[in-house]
Amino acid sequence: MRLSINRTRLLAATVTLVVAGGIGVAAAGASAPVPSNATQKGMGVGEYGMTQGYFNGRTVSFTYDKGFFCDRRVPSAATSGCEAGANFKVAPAMNYDPLYILVPLGFSVPTMNMECPDALACVDHPGTIDLSRLEPALKGLYPQLTAAQLTGALKNAATPGHEHFITTANAGKPEWWDVKVIGVTSKAEWDTINAHRSFAFLNQQVTKQLTTPIIPTNLFLYFSVN
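Request: output the structure for the sequence above.
Response:
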């Protein structure tokens, strides 16, 4: 279930998107920017809502009531201030746990089959993120873009569609979650991982190199697990 006061922020129809299975990049000349969902760089709009995620083989609900945090000590060209490929330097709290997001690369997943789909910003998630540090790994997904177009687009890319995996419920108490990204290039592997609903299994696939390595970010989300 996905509930949010601002849940229906679709990208404007006039924006030309190149979507390579989870990574949405606005092509050169697009007339409307991707919403950042930030009040200022590094601080998200505070919303109340829910998403779902996977924990120990089952589906659980996340309840959000605070906007995202991105450590501004990490340089980011995204309007949200969020960066993939570089770890945070200062966390928003002393205690936090990891949140792993699984992103499809090179294939599409139907909107209704993904918890946080492309072109929609899930509650308290950033709408944009700087992916330029990952450019070498993403070049093959965008043969239709020139190097200059890809570099420019990745600096303020739409947050890719994804699923959530956690390793603890933190006794149902709200806390900050350190976002880590894992990409998968095979639809069959995507289906297998999501069928297990477990980070333990996902981590096995990472170890077997059936996914990308775990990619750090400077992004934190705040929610409780039910």
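The longest helix spans residues 187-196.
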